[in-house]
Specification:
Elements (H helix, E strand, L loop, with lengths): L8 E6 L2 E6 L17 H12 L8 H8 L10 E4 L3 E5 H20 L13 E4 L14 H26 L3 E4 L6 H9 L3 E4 L2 E4 L1 E4 L13 E4 L2 H8 L4 E4 L3 E7 L8 H14 L6 E5 L1 H5 L2 H9 L1 H4 L3 E3 L4 H9 L4 H13 L15 E6 L6 E3 L7 E3 L3 H10 L18 E2 L6 E2 L4 E6 L8 H16 L9 E4 L4 H9 L3 H6 L21 H10 L4 E4 L15 E4 L2 H10 L12 E2 L5 E2 L1 H4 L3 H7 L6 H8 L7 H4 L36 E9 L6 H4 L10 H8 L17 H7 L18 E4 L4 E4 H10 L4 E4 L11 H9 L2 E6 L4 H9 L3 E5 L15 E5 L10 E7 L5 E8 L4 H8 L3 H10 L1
Parallel strand pairs: 4-5, 4-9, 5-6, 9-10, 12-13, 12-15, 13-14, 20-21, 20-22, 22-23, 26-29, 29-30, 30-31
Antiparallel strand pairs: 1-2, 3-11, 7-8, 16-17, 18-19, 24-25, 26-32, 27-28, 31-34, 32-33, 33-34
């Protein structure tokens, strides 16, 4: 039975006749007078709350609270948001599927029907994180890389195929199709969904922080950890505090020579400074209307980099055109337009039409060509200032954020061991047009092709030691680059197709030439990567590449030709052509008119329909993967897939919340510890705890694969937690890598080994950190690994939104220092013991609790902390030992 809360169940016209919907404008008749001044993103969440009123999880009071949203009130109320669907990428999707499979084992053990564990909303897993750039600049690179991918991941792919047949609402988009965000944008997103005669907005959460790319087409959705996504799949609302909404009024238009990437790097810098962390950002005004849909998607995609929950663009005619160009049906488009018009939400608002918590202004005509780096996406550098900046960083001390090259000289040349290749600081060694930020955007990809074509015509080339790659976000990109006659030129410069998936940007850049790596390490060279992605954190792109710069695809090609980043591209030639004449960037830079002339190749609806019609056609590697059957998974001995330990000794009753006593510090860290530092990622070192485990289990070093590919095995992942080669544990001054000091023995050892020793001694542990703890990708293993190591609390100056939530979801307490207090001001060194008191079954969200420090000299100190359990439901999660046991008890009851 459909409810009619506040008399809001209404009808609107569709091609097939009449559709039902829950009308937000109708709430005005129920006394909510401000409804049409709410930000559009808030209204869409409000529709989901209204439609899902059941008197239990979601009540009329929840509707009232959100309908009465005020721009600047304090945020204490939680919103239960039921999403329409969930998307997963394979690194996070496999452990999530393993958890579901383990839940079915528990159901059987409890005498229940295993089908009680079933996703209640559609789930799509897109396999996009497993391809690595082992082969490049060859005509068979993509086939060779995919062959290796399937050899490395056959156990995981077999497990996914089991999931497809075991769960009714679980579908897989196989390898070689594209990245999750672009497949979502071009194919999965429907705009408006129909179920039981009711039409409602397409909303979602995804297990990749860049799920926000979908905000560019008016879809409310954001990245969550696998933990939250799992709860959403199993019918739990996604709970979050009522958000502030920052309105960004875009005016003007981009000037000639400026790309969407330049725009997004500027917005990232601007919004980071505006401190939009955890807020909704909504773009409006004439400038927003003037942007193409792919440009909007590029901006929305970078929301994690500027820290926002979303970067949202409302629906308008440009959205409709995109849906038509990408092959959606006439019936879908008709329902889409009529639905949003009936909701009074069609069109991008102008200044003054909506109320926002804060309003910012950006004139698009002021944007300059830019890059960002060398370590963070918000550190924008105007293109003409890059040479000065990199030269300055080379000679700045490491303590001040530089590279400490006191004897640095641009003339100092090293040679790789056998190849006699001249290498020097600031040389480009990786140049990657990689997925995510830009490859959904035909404007910048076609621009890269045009620049390559002009460069080839003038006789320019790329040094053979630069590792060049092109990894588009979908097969559509290859189609339009070929049809526009531009792929050949990219091929000639080395940008041959290496795969369809996330590559360089997530650390899947693959190895460099061995001689080059030896030369870099022996001479402590500052090698550089230039890439069109969105992440450039230390050691993420490649462990031996120290400087990584984000930029537009055409600039990636230009810097590959130049071969170095210490160049002023506005005044210096990037190379010399056929007759030895200097060629400048302005000589080959594409004009807006030139890009517009080939844009038609990227907007052919038939191409999209053809390429998304069948994922198994021409995909023999996937079709040949065997599949097991049955409702319950039969766990085999595997170093890829193992039964998760999170339901060990499961019972139907929850536990109790109690103080943490006599804890030790497992690690003390500085500011900006990212999930890349915490979560296992990249290659596995043979000497690491994970490497030793694999060798003990008969895995050859050449078959280690990456941490990401082994996310379905907790034994590997917990050994790789806090094992990043660049993490600095301040308990051992000057150290790098996942090491700590075990107390009271004083022995230095790997963090994993110390954690196991503490667990054997029944000693709880804590992590201490600075600002922005847990920024970076929304990785469940950053929280799962922390829990499995025995960490009971993380105490930091501030937390990234998703990681804080995930810690609670795994039963780890996030706590925040108050005022000016820091672990530095407390002079903690790891020799102390700690109690955390003031927490019991009556604990309240965001209450003050006390940290008791007992120092080695006998002194005791009490420090107040803010408990970052933010909502009442999180209290329940924590009491149950985490969100997974909580959801399982709910389902089995």
């Amino acid at each position: 039975m459909l409810h009619n809360t506040f008399n809001t169940l209404k009808e609107f016209p569709v091609k097939q006749g009449i559709g039902k919907f829950y009308s937000i404008p109708a709430l005005a008749d129920a006394g909510f007078n401000n409804i049409n001044r709410l930000p559009v993103s808030i209204r869409i969440v409000l529709e989901a709350v209204l439609r899902n009123v059941d008197g239990k999880r979601i009540t009329e009071e929840h509707v009232r609270t959100l309908a009465n949203w005020q721009p600047t009130e304090s945020r204490t109320e939680e919103i239960p948001f039921v999403v329409a669907r969930v998307v997963l990428q394979d690194f996070t999707g496999v452990p999530l599927l393993a958890d579901l499979a383990a839940m079915r084992n528990v159901a059987v053990n409890q005498g229940k029907n295993p089908k009680a564990i079933e996703p209640l909303v559609p789930v799509n897993l897109v396999v996009d994180h497993s391809v690595q750039v082992d082969h490049y600049n060859t005509n068979t690179a993509i086939q060779d890389n995919m062959q290796l991918e399937f050899e490395r991941n056959s156990e995981r792919y077999k497990f996914m195929k089991w999931g497809m047949q075991a769960f009714d609402t679980f579908q897989v988009v196989p390898p070689g199709i594209g990245i999750v965000h672009q497949v979502n944008l071009e194919y999965l997103a429907r705009g408006v969904i129909k179920k039981d005669q009711v039409f409602y907005p397409d909303t979602l959460v995804g297990t990749d922080s860049h799920t926000t790319m979908i905000n560019g087409i008016g879809v409310v959705g954001w990245g969550v950890g696998g933990i939250e996504a799992e709860a959403g799949m199993l019918g739990q609302p996604v709970y979050f505090l009522t958000p502030d909404v920052v309105g960004v009024n875009l005016t003007g238009k981009l000037k000639e020579g400026v790309t969407a990437t330049d725009l997004v790097l500027t917005i990232t810098e601007m919004l980071r400074k505006a401190k939009v962390v955890g807020k909704f950002v909504e773009f409006f005004g004439d400038g927003a209307t003037s942007l193409s849909l792919p440009d909007r998607a590029t901006i929305a995609n970078m929301a994690p980099e500027y820290g926002a929950t979303m970067g949202f663009f409302p629906v308008d005619e440009e959205t409709v055109a995109y849906f038509k160009n990408t092959g959606r049906t006439e019936e879908e488009i008709d329902a889409f337009v009529n639905y949003w018009k009936a909701q009074n939400m069609f069109g991008i608002p102008q200044k003054g039409q909506c109320d926002y918590s804060q309003q910012l202004e950006l004139d698009l005509s002021t944007i300059e060509p830019s890059v960002a780096g060398p370590k963070r996406p918000q550190d924008r550098i105007i293109l003409k200032g890059l040479k000065e900046k990199i030269n300055q960083l080379l000679t700045t001390t490491v303590k001040e954020g530089g590279y400490g090259k006191e004897e640095h000289s641009t003339e100092k040349v090293f040679h790789s061991v056998n190849k006699h290749i001249p290498l020097k600081d600031a040389d480009v060694l990786i140049a990657a047009i990689t997925s995510c930020t830009n490859t959904s955007n035909p404007g910048v990809l076609l621009a890269a092709g045009i620049l390559a074509k002009k460069a080839v015509q003038l006789g320019l080339s790329v040094n053979p030691w630069v590792k060049t790659s092109l990894a588009p976000g979908s097969r559509v990109v290859t189609e339009y680059l070929n049809n526009a006659g531009l792929q050949d030129s990219l091929d000639q410069l080395g940008f041959k197709l290496v795969g369809y998936g996330c590559t360089t940007c997530i650390g899947n850049a693959g190895p460099l030439d061995g001689d080059i790596e030896d030369t870099i390490v022996k001479n402590d060279l500052v090698g550089c990567a230039v890439l069109s992605g969105n992440r450039n954190f230390e050691a993420r792109i490649h462990p031996n590449i120290k400087a990584n710069f984000l930029m537009s695809p055409p600039l990636v090609v230009a810097f590959a030709i130049a071969g170095r980043v210490n160049i002023d591209m506005t005044t210096e030639p990037i190379g010399h052509g056929k007759n030895g004449q200097p060629v400048y960037l302005k000589d080959i830079w594409p004009t807006q008119q030139e890009v517009a002339e080939v844009m038609r190749y990227a907007t052919d609806a038939n191409t999209y329909r053809k390429l998304y019609a069948d994922f198994t056609k021409d995909n023999p590697l996937w079709n040949n993967i065997p599949s097991s059957t049955g409702m319950v998974y039969q766990w085999e001995k595997s170093t890829y897939i193992a039964e998760p330990p999170f339901f060990k000794d499961f019972s139907m009753t929850s536990g109790h919340i109690q103080a943490i006593k006599n804890a030790r510090a497992l690690g003390i860290f500085g500011d900006s510890i990212t999930t890349d530092h915490i979560s296992p990622a990249g290659s596995i070192k043979p000497s690491s705890p994970a490497g030793k485990y694999l060798q003990e289990n008969g895995v050859e070093i050449r078959d280690f694969n990456s941490y990401g590919s082994r996310r379905g095995n907790h034994e590997v992942m917990m050994r790789g937690t806090f094992a990043n080669v660049r993490i600095k544990n301040l308990m051992i001054p000057g150290s790098e890598g996942g090491v700590t000091v075990h107390q009271p023995s004083g022995e230095q050892m790997a963090i994993y080994d110390a954690a196991m020793k503490y667990q054997a001694e029944k000693v709880p542990t804590m992590i201490f950190a600075g600002e922005e703890y847990g920024t970076g990708s929304s990785r469940d293993w950053a929280a799962k690994g922390t829990q499995l190591l025995g960490v009971k609390a993380v105490i930091a100056r501030s937390f990234e939104r998703i990681h804080r939530s995930n810690l609670v979801g795994m039963g780890v307490l996030p706590c925040q220092f108050i005022g000016e207090t820091t672990h530095q001001s407390l002079q903690l060194d790891g020799s102390e013991t700690f109690d955390l008191v003031g927490i019991d079954d009556g604990v309240k969200p965001q209450q003050t609790i006390t940290l008791i420090i007992r120092r080695a000299n006998g002194q005791t100190q009490e420090v107040p902390l803010l408990l970052r359990i933010d909502t009442p439901i999180e209290v329940d999660y924590y009491k149950n030992g985490g969100i997974l046991p909580y959801v399982l008890r709910e389902l089995l009851n």
